[in-house]
Amino acid sequence: MDFRILDASAFYAGVPFRSSEDCYTTSLVYDEIQHIKKNQDVLGTLLETNRLKIREPDKQSTQAAIKAAKETGDFPQLSKQDVSIIALGIETKGQIITDDFAISNVAKNMGLNIAPIMTKGIKDVGKWIHYCPGCKTSFKGGKECSNCGTALKRKLIK
Which of 7, 61, 66, 102 is most buried per CB count within 10 Å? Predict the structure, then answer.
């Protein structure tokens, strides 16, 4: 591993501020976290010293990330920023630094390298299914059972 790919939680935890390793993020994540330590312009310093690099994933990697997220059932829980981090991980094979369960689940299902920050990371990896607690019918997605109208729940199938 030559570098780390940081999602927003990595910035909130201070990872790039106490690491000498090269760090990458996407412009979507950078825009989300620009308010961090704004008075001291710490992010600007990281960019100027080339310790933080902004890189956009290519379209193919982004499409692969979306496809994988839909296959695991995590897509509804992912923001555009989250998808961009997974896509950058696919493209570069860098280590993704995150505490986000949905990012971790999709990335681990794809065989990408994930490292948690402030948690122990995810224990179980799998695919989400939606089910009706009323009539016990399973669905690929949705919010309401088409058979009985009960609100759907979801569970992780390992």
Answer: 7
